[in-house]
Amino acid sequence: MSLPQNIVILTGAGVSAESGIDTFRGGGGLWEQHRVEDVATPEAFARDPDLVLRFYDMRRAAIQEKAPNAAHRALARLEREWPIKVPDGSVTLVTQNVDDLHLRAGSERLIAMHGQHLSAWCTACDTRHAWTGPLIDRPPCPACAAPALRPDIVWFGEVPYRMDEIHAAMAQADLFVSIGTSGAVYPAAGFVRLAREIGAETLELNLERSQGSAWFHETRLGPATQIVPDWVDELLKTR
Ligand code: OAD
């Protein structure tokens, strides 16, 4: 394989698993305690807003007790030490995760396509606000005072954020790497096929083969805190 310049990395819940944050579909995963249709859809929010707000309040509180792990740190290091800088090359990190562990590890070219726990969205005035506390008591929006804040999370049936930027990065990519995601949720699950269409190399790093495994040129299996730092070391040595 020729040396890549533009790398797009997609992460999922598996990258945060060893920080103590449940994945969605694994044993003991999130949806076993709460059915997805009970919490992660606009319809569920309309039907039972207290359940949905309580659920996300719990998750928002929980992630603030967790810390980035060696996989998050290795990806931040790759971005920092990648010698080819914009406009000639770049490392872009697209995450499906709604925790803030990539940010806390130091990643900067980061696209949180499914939103963020530490943000609240006012559905009355369409503003977003950094948010660490609960929403269950319907606090007023800091901009318009309406009690209309909801989790700034992309629910099933809603369009993920910043898709134009993701497509622009994918169009330039010569290496696409998927880390810790089951490949079950679109559009992220389709990125590997986009990458193949434009001729990029594709690599999967995961605990086990994902649903989209067959699309990757190479799959490396193991816990993210081991295989991600190993891969980053290897890649930086090639430059
Ligand atoms: P999943 O729970 O579907 O998949 C997690 C993947 O991580 C699985 O393939 C596991 O094998 C792998 N994994 C678990 N522990 C790991 C470890 N220590 N190291 C490496 N890999 C590990 O989570 P996602 O693919 O992220 O959407 O789920 C995608 C989306 O589904 C989420 O963003 C969420 C959910 O609906 C929204 O909230 C909108």
UniProtKB/TrEMBL annotation:
Q: Which GO terms describe its molecular function?
A: NAD-dependent protein lysine deacetylase activity
Q: Cite the InterPro entries for this sequence.
A: DHS-like_NAD/FAD-binding_dom, NAD-dep_sirtuin_deacylases, Sirtuin, Sirtuin_cat_small_dom_sf, Sirtuin_class_III, Ssirtuin_cat_dom
Needed co-factor(s)? Zn(2+)
> What's noted about domains in the record?
2 residues (Tyr-56 and Arg-59) present in a large hydrophobic pocket are probably involved in substrate specificity. They are important for desuccinylation activity, but dispensable for deacetylation activity.
The family classification in the record reads: Belongs to the sirtuin family. Class III subfamily.
Keyword terms: Acyltransferase, Cytoplasm, Metal-binding, NAD, Transferase, Zinc
Residues where Zn(2+) binds: 122, 125, 141, 144
- Positions that bind substrate: 56, 59
Cellular localisation: Cytoplasm
Name the species this protein comes from: Novosphingobium pokkalii
Question: For this UniProt entry, what is the primary localization, expressed as one broad class?
Answer: cytoplasm
Protein name, entry field: NAD-dependent protein deacylase
Cofactor, free-text remark: Binds 1 zinc ion per subunit.
Its gene name is: cobB
Every Deacetylase sirtuin-type domain range: 1-238
